[in-house]
Amino acid sequence: MPRIDLHAHSTASDGTDTPEELVATAAAAGVDVLAITDHDTTGGWARAVGALPAGMRLVRGAEFSCVSDDGRGGRVAVHLLGYLFDPAHPAVAAEQERLRGERTQRLRAMTAKMAAAGYPVDTEQVFALLPEGASAGRPHLARALVAAGVVASVDQAFAELLYTGSPYYVPKADTPVRRAVEMIRDAGGVSVFAHPLARSRGRVVEPSVIAELAGAGLTGVEVDHRDHSPQDRALLRGLAAETGLLTTGSSDYHGTNKTIPIAAETTDPEQFEALLAKADGVELVTG
């Protein structure tokens, strides 16, 4: 059975592997189909394509920063995986550029707040960790804190200092999730709600929100993810069966920024083929 991992990050956003290294890591792990899904950017696509070994297939995608009603009268940050969309579509290109700007401003503001509180970090140091053109994120600040000896790991930095709602946290203006679903669809792509019930990360949406998005054009839901409990995986599978959503499984690989190995979770081949059949923005690339 082919190994299919539909959620992985490179140095084009907050991963530690270059796009070429990401492809090589996946190939060494026996991955047959890999999706590159950096945050709010398609900047790693060309390099990943160029590194594909013979026979390996690449799904070009991105993870969109979104905001959603939570189903309880509030709002919550969520992530939406977009696959095989046309990156030149005007709405997608403009929104990704805006989101990258939001990310840069947020990282500068959080770094400044920590420096003002006496932490040994500064903007120049943090941004030196970003490759040219990369989409900025909190993991870059976390890595600066590790380098400064403040914490031992990126995970510790998030748990103690950079979590949503911390004294140093700064929000950003994300895309309304329904608009993102429509935007990806209009660009010929398909959308999958990423780790929707990852409760360890903070507040999550009610299942009713996912069902409503299914009616608005959402294609699938990421079920098998390290941050989902067995109970929540079962809940999501049942919801998908009721609403016609496809189901995926993915590692959410970030290199050394997270401990999860590539292909720790994978997607069923039949579900992948059904997902592929619904997209017509850009083609699947085969090495």
From TrEMBL:
Polymerase/histidinol phosphatase N-terminal domain mapped to chain residues: 4-68
Bilayer-spanning residue ranges: none
InterPro entries (alphabetical): PHP_dom (IPR004013), PHP_domain (IPR052018), Pol/His_phosphatase_N (IPR003141), Pol/histidinol_Pase-like (IPR016195)
A GO molecular-function annotation: 5'-3' RNA exonuclease activity
Pfam family, one: PHP
Gene3D superfamilies in alphabetical order: 1.10.150.650, Metal-dependent hydrolases
The name this protein goes by in its record: PHP domain protein
